[in-house]
Amino acid sequence: MRSPLCILATLVPSAALAVAVRALPAQGAPPSSVAPTPAPAPASSFAARGLVRTTDGRPIAAATVVVLETLDETRTDSIGRFALPSAHRGLATVVARGVGFVPATVDVTLPVDSALTFVLTARPPVLSQFVVVAAGEYTIGGGQTATLTPLDVVQTPGAAGNIARAIQTLPGAQGVDEGTGLFVRGGDVTETRVLVDDAWLLSPVRADNPTGHTTTTVNPFLLDRTVFSSGGFGAGYGNALSGLVRMESASAPLRRSGSVSASIGGVSAAFGARPTERLGVRVAAGVSTLSPLIAVFGEAQPYDPPPRGHDASGTLDWRTSAAGRLRLFAVRQQQRFGVGDAAAQGAATYAARSDDGIAVLSWRDSSTAWRPAITAALSTFDRRETFGPTGLRTRLASPQLLASLGYRTARGTLWRIGAEREGLRASYAGTATQGDVVTPTFGVRTPSTRTAAFAEATHTFAAGVRVIGGVRSDHSTLTARRTVDPRLSLAWQRGALGLTAAWGTYHQVAEPTFRRALPARDFAPMRVVQAMAGVQWGSDSSGVRLEVYDKRYDALWQFTPAYAPVGGGVGHARGVDLQWRWRVSDALRTRITWSHVHARRTAPGTDVVAPSLADVSHSAAWITERIWRGITIGTALRLATGRPFTDIVGTDRSSGMPEPVYGAPFGARLPTYRRSDLSASWYRALGDRRGLVLWGSASNVFVRRNVMRYRWTDDFATRLPVQAPFLRSLFVGSTLLF
After folding, report:
1. DSSP label of 157
2. What are the start-end ranges of the H helices in 276-425?
3. From CA 471, how far away is CA 673, in angstroms rounded?
4. What is the overall mean pLDDT for the chain?
5. In this structure, how many other beta carbons lie within 10 angstroms of the beta carbon of residue 191?
6. Phi-psi category of 589—alpha, beta or left, where left has phi over 0 and alpha has psi -120 to 50?
7. 22: part of which helix (H) or strand (E)?
8. Opening angle at CA 170, ends 252 and 617, nearest 5
9. Residue 189 DSSP symbol
10. Residue 10 pLDDT > 80, yes or no?
11. Gap between the Cα atoms of 119 and 37, Å rounded
12. Which alpha helices (DSSP H) does 389-432 contain, by range?
């Protein structure tokens, strides 16, 4: 189980690579868009000279040519020529833009001793491309696809290079605590499924701990992109009630490269190579510890031991055809930490040690009208926990096999069918310690298998309407029942206006810990019916999006305060999500997100319908990024109304021992959560293909004393606030690229 701070320390060293991305070759730029032509060497005051023209040879006047690293820019004259002044030396990305044209990009070493010719292609009419984002999907960056690039993740202030923390700044994800758990649109953290190359990455079951809820993800620089869906995802994905995080491992590197990072939180290294034209290799490793940070800034709650961990990963990528690849991706992560004063009463200590990982072998090919895909994976998770004298070990292993086949017809309809088989071997063992004697208290093994099949069709009509319809069927040996889930998604676009809608039924098998000794016939799968509708207005860099949703739950499984499993719960969640993005200039962009949710569920063990844990009524984030003299500066302001909790309103002494008297289930709320974060990074080229990154980040700049939970004195008469682990933290470090 990864504590949020342990994840933060593990991934922060990689955040320095954010600026490095700016200096690496742009993979998305068409090679033919820029062609060098002979010319005299530019004068010393200019880094590059050249011409900007159309595909038919006409010059483009008043086009902008800019160096991304420093934002030095110039404009073309009446015959399309430019002279670009810049003091930057070394690798740089130069971009040419013109109104009504698709931008062109080239990566060169400045100064350039030959003229550059940018060939800009006229931008197609908006109606010829379907770019409206699907219902329920959101993006951090300025693009119109709902993807998060590694650069988007690490440049989100306060995210500390963690994908889950970056997603928490998007609409639909409620910030329940300082952890990385993804509570999506009123749903529990266990209702969000995390995938790597379509394989399930085992997040800790009952992933809550005294430092906050957690969701397991991986280093963003091991990935090409991440897609977040807050609902409305298609029939190809199952066993998730609320959210879906789809991560795609990084493709083969274009050339040999590497990096070494060091910071106050740890060290890491990465290396990539392309031994042959078809084969690519990546390896990475890192070690982290919060001990130096605690030594400098102290801690708001005692750690014993402080969070520490290490990880290692590797990728082999083989290009099988022009649009096909076979990839093996593997990652292993280990963490350890302890927290004092972890109990609601008394001073019991909580400690955890976890080891999780995944190995995924996947094949994709889209060279023809047929689109086959096969994934085989093994995901594992092993966690040891102690809470005072009580111990628990949780071991999970999930072998998985998924296959799908798509076919695009001559009329543009994409048909897709698929099947999957997912095993889950779960074992739980409890112990009690008295002095030096450790006594086993229970042992449970719960093996299960889930099989599924789905069919889906996607068609875009000439009027700008896209329809996605599908159905999936799942069967689990834990429930001995078959479920059928129909799903439908609609989208329409006219110019800058887009409308979206989605409806569907979703089932999820509850955690194996709920199953215990229950017969399968009594273990019904959880179910939600959700509907949503949204409107979007604007371009790919500036625009606004509003979405409303309604979710109806039944057959929910929950734990009572005494950790007894109970089923048959019902609930609902409805709300509205807003996202506004504005690119003020090439040097400044900002975004504001706001979410409102009203979520209610049956309180475990009662018939009372009460607020759910994720009923954070209002949550908002304002993220701004500014590039100034080669320094990238990011700021983040976050606010969330306090989450609900069950208060202790009195003490019962009738038994001779003080016993708590509880108030209404989840009838009280924590104080409003506020936090401000700041980040900065600076890149300097050190000759051809080498560079240095200096970076730093400060969390909770204004030392807000946020309350994460409460604990009580032994007689339950006094309530004591438990604050966030650090009142303020500062990370600084550097990365050497070679």
Report:
1. T
2. 291-297
3. 41
4. 82
5. 24
6. beta
7. helix 17-23
8. 155
9. G
10. no
11. 12
12. none
Tokens of 368: 């023809």
User: In terms of DSSP bridges, do strands 64-67 and 137-138 run parallel, antiparallel, or are they unpaired?
Assistant: unpaired
SS (H, E, C) 222-289: HEEEEEEECCCCCCCCCCCCCEEEEEEECCCCCCCEEEEEEECCEEEEEEEECCCCCEEEEEEEEEEE
Nearest residue to 377 (alpha-carbon basis) of 394, 402, 356 = 402
The pLDDT of residue 362 is 96
Q: Which helix (H) or strand (E) holds 5?
A: helix 4-15
Enumerate domains of the chain plus CATH numbers.
Answer: 4-24+131-646+658-737 (2.40.170.20), 39-113 (2.60.40.1120)
Please state, in angstroms and rounded to a whole number, the distance separating the CA atoms of residues 175 and 530. Answer: 21
- How far apart CA 181 and CA 572 sit, in angstroms, is 20
The pTM for the full model equals 0.80
CA angle 194, 400, 517 (to 5 degrees): 85
Chain mean position to CA 708: 22
704: buried, middle or exposed (CB in 10 Å: 19+, 13-18, 0-12)? middle
Structure confidence by residue, pLDDT tens digits, 439-463: 998 888 889 999 999 999 999 887 7
Task: Work out the pLDDT band at 347, boundaries 50, 70, 90.
Answer: low
Closest CA to 112 of 34, 11, 201, 9: 34
Please state, in angstroms and rounded to a whole number, the distance separating the CA atoms of residues 339 and 301. Answer: 7
Q: Sign of dihedral through CA atoms 437, 441, 447, 448?
A: negative
| Angle at alpha carbon of residue 103, lines to 97 and 106, rounded to 5° | 100
What are the residues facing 538 on neighbouring strands? 543
The 10s digit of each residue's pLDDT in 90-103 is 667 788 888 778 78
Element (H, E) at 460: strand 437-460
The mean pLDDT of 575-597, rounded to a whole number, is 90
- For residues 328 and 138, give the distance between their C-alpha atoms in angstroms, rounded to a whole number: 28
Give the integer Cα–Cα distance in Å for 152 and 501: 27
pLDDT at 468 over 60: yes
- CB–CB of 586/628 below 8 Å? no
The CA-to-CA distance between both ends of the chain, in Å, stands at: 34
Look-up of token digits 């795609």:
248
State whether residue 699 is helix, strand or coil: strand
Q: Among all chains, which residue has been given the structure tokens 């009280």?
A: 668
Tokens in use for 341?
A: 């004063």
Reduced to 3 states (helix: H, G, I; strand: E, B; else coil), residue 124 is: coil
- Three-state DSSP at 521 gives helix
Q: What is the DSSP letter of 306?
A: P
Distance CA 466, CA 488 (A): 11
Structure-derived torsion over alpha carbons of residues 186, 188, 190, 191, reported in degrees to the nearest 10: -30
Q: Which residue has the higher pLDDT, 157 or 456?
A: 456
Say if CB 66 and CB 627 are below 8 A apart: no
Residue 705 confidence class, pLDDT cut points 50, 70, 90 = confident
SS3 111: coil
Nearest residue to 229 via CA among 132, 147, 155: 147
Q: Are 432 and 438 in contact (CB under 8 A)?
A: yes
- Closest by Cα among 625, 551, 537, 575 to 133: 537
Within 10 A of 722 (CB to CB), how many other CB atoms are there? Answer: 18
Distance CA 700, CA 636 (A): 10
* H, E, C per residue of 68-86: CCCCCEEECCCCCEEEEEC
Among 2, 161, 3, which residue's Cα sits nearest to residue 725? 3
Contacts of 129 (CB under 8 A, 6+ apart): none
Give the residue among 737, 665, 726, 600 at the shortest CA–CA distance from 307: 726
pLDDT tens track for 96-148: 888 778 788 887 778 887 788 999 888 654 333 334 556 655 544 433 334 56
Tokens read off for 125:
């009419």
Residue type for position 703: V
